[in-house]
Amino acid sequence: MTSDYLRNLSPDSVLAELPLVAYRVVPDTQCKEVRDYFQMSPTIPGVLVVMPDETKMQAMLSRRRLFERLSRPYALDVFLKRSMAELPDIWAENQNCLMVPGTLRVADGLSMALARFGEDAYEPLVVSVADGDFLLDVGDLLMAHARIFQLAMQLLDRQQQETHRYLLRLEDQQTQIQQYTRTLEAQQVQLQTRSASLEAIQKQLLNLAGVFATQGGQAFRETFAGIDLITQEINRIVQDSTQLRVEVLHICSISEVIGKIANQINLLAFNTAVESERTGSGSKGLGVLASEVRRLARETTEAARDIRLLAQAIQENTERNVTSAQSGAQVATHLREVSQSASQALANMRSLLQELTESNQKLITTAHSLS
Predict the structure, then answer these.
(1) Do 106 and 220 sit in the same domain of this protein?
(2) This model's pTM is above 0.70
(3) Is residue 125 part of a domain?
(4) Sign of CA dihedral 276, 279, 280, 284
(5) What pLDDT digit, counting tens, does each position of 102-121 carry?
(6) DSSP states of 262-317 as a string?
């Protein structure tokens, strides 16, 4: 028989995958015909006796049993002329005939075959499949089992090689894990060192936050108070300058009135002098008096002019003082806004320092837990 089927076997192969023999005869077939067929086909393990138009076995006769029967004295003359039905020991109840399903695994089939007693262990098996009953030679079963065993050994060898490679990879991974462990230990030491540094930094941050909270706040409060005083003083200066400007304007008005009066007196004195000249020596004293009045009127006019010029100078200086005071007030207002912004920035910095301190505390706690 061909051994091509061996290449297609696997550890889970069943009996139906092996070369099954379908040599069947009816009960009235002559023994000589079966003997001749065995001689022409030396690999046929036996013959199945079936009813006409059926494939189910009625009896089974192996090659070994037939030739053993024919080797007895006078057996050729006695049995060759008889039919298969006349052989007394070929029926299933008269021999140890092993019938198994085609779905049985090869290893299980061989175990059942070899479990039979004595020479019966080498009798062919009757394999039942959907198409009927077939014969399976024990030699083919042994070859199939040997092939399956070989495949199992190859599979085992591959698994051993794969296991060896896996162990090598495992050793490499263990080496890497050890390196990672040493690296982790070094990092833990560094982490502990940095944790200590963070604790020192945290204390400094807390001290800095306290300084900002006390001295910075006090400085800004004093700055705000000073700016408020400056603003109040500037406002008072503006008010005084405004009042002074009103009074200067009043002085200017009075000086203009004085000037007008002096002009009228001067005109009156001039007219008196003219009249004195016209009337003669009797009015000489009146002329002197008119001259004196004219001198006084001239001096009064000059004094009024000087007062007006001085008042104008005072008014201009007052205007400049008011303008400077208003500029100072704007500068003070801007300085207060800048100081408020700086105070808010200080508050934000204090909050940021607080958040940074809390973050450092969490980091220190995490570092302690990791170590």
Answers:
(1) no
(2) no
(3) yes
(4) negative
(5) 999 999 999 999 998 888 88
(6) HHHHHHHHHHHHHHHHHH-GGGHHHHHHHHHHHHHHHHHHHHHHHHHHHHHHHHHH
